[in-house]
Amino acid sequence: MVIDVRDLRMRYGTVDVLHGVDFTAERGEVVALLGPNGAGKTTTIEILEGFRMPSAGQVRVLGVDPAKGDELWRAKLGVVLQSWRDHARWKVRELLDHLGRYYAPYSTPDRVRPFDTDALIRTVGLEEHAHKKIGKLSGGQRRRLDVAIGIVGKPELLFLDEPTAGFDPHARRDFHDLVHRLSDLEGMTILLTTHDLAEAEKLADRILVLAGGRIIADGSPDQLSRQVAGQAEVRWTQAGQRHVHATDDATGFVRDLFAQHSRGISELEVRRSTLEDTYLTLVQRFESGQANEEEVAAL
């Protein structure tokens, strides 16, 4: 178990930000932490990283209480923040080579640290910019460098905060491939926060939804979609008129539709609920008080 959180609570003055948060993450798992602004995501991540002390509860990251983590423990973590605004005069390769040297003393036979600098640059797609000053990089190139800085020490656990902010579609696809390689080939556990629900659906093995300081859902994107919104929407055109029908059995409905109307059906579309639909439903239920404890426990 890479992350093990039990009854995590956080209070600022008289305001409770986290109310008994529980979740786990295993080796090689990609977990997305979703939630509206003010839900407690940043506080939770800062506690896991050892930058903030919780008010109560038990937290273990790589078997250690983050509040007591030493340098050896920190060498096993990687952090990619939303943005960096320093190192402008360094060249890309020089900076990564320099930072990598700090991890060399923590290398083990099972996990050689750091990443080879040139291999790392290839991994994040910055070969053509290896000798360019960081201040001259574009936004997308700089974001790739942020990722390279976060993984230079070959972490066992990587925190990603809005990782593809500013990426164009091609760069975003390349980054998604990189995340899968890190989790599959390096056995890296990845905890990411994002407001891009389509990205979370593509990347995450498991989704955590945090709202009001509580985990209100925990499961794969497919599990959450099935549990919250079982109906699919079938759309079709017949005799120039557009029709829409909601059904729990899209396959059966389409079969019956063609059995009744062998001709004249066109523009057939089956739309199943997306993670965005599920997420919005969960948060709206919670905020309106419709989700009771039994529903949350079932999710």
UniProtKB/TrEMBL annotation:
GO terms for molecular function: ATP binding; ATP hydrolysis activity. It is a peripheral membrane protein. The keyword ATP-binding applies. SUPFAM superfamilies: P-loop containing nucleoside triphosphate hydrolases. The keyword Plastid does not apply. One of its GO terms (biological process) is response to antibiotic. Residues 3-237 form the ABC transporter domain. Keywords: Antibiotic resistance, ATP-binding, Nucleotide-binding, Transport. It is found in: Cell membrane. One of its GO terms (cellular component) is plasma membrane. SMART domains: AAA. InterPro entries: AAA+_ATPase, ABC_transporter-like_ATP-bd, ABC_transporter-like_CS, ABC_transporter_ATP-binding, P-loop_NTPase. Belongs to the ABC transporter superfamily. This is ABC-2 type transport system ATP-binding protein.
